[in-house]
Design a protein that fits this description.
about 40% helix, three-stranded antiparallel sheet, alpha+beta, binds zinc ion, about 70 residues
């Protein structure tokens, strides 16, 4: 197993917590973008914030692949 960080990074813990609360949303700290892979059609969605990601995800599932409905 590769270990990139010798010291536990508090920010990594923070991101992991956010990730756990974000319904599968992934936050890229370096670009500031949120990404989400649609579980139905496997398409990757991107948004500048978590709030916008929720809108994009709902729009996508309702209008583009109707996943989960
Ligand atoms: Zn989809």
């Amino acid at each position: 197993m590769n270990k990139h960080y010798e010291i536990p990074d508090p920010f990594q813990t923070f991101v992991a917590k956010k990730y756990a609360n974000a319904k599968g949303y992934i936050h890229d700290f370096f670009t500031g973008e949120w990404s989400y892979k649609c579980l139905t059609c496997k398409e990757d969605l991107f948004a500048p914030s978590r709030k916008i990601m929720t809108k994009i995800r709902l729009y996508h599932t309702r209008n583009e692949c109707t996943g989960g409905y």
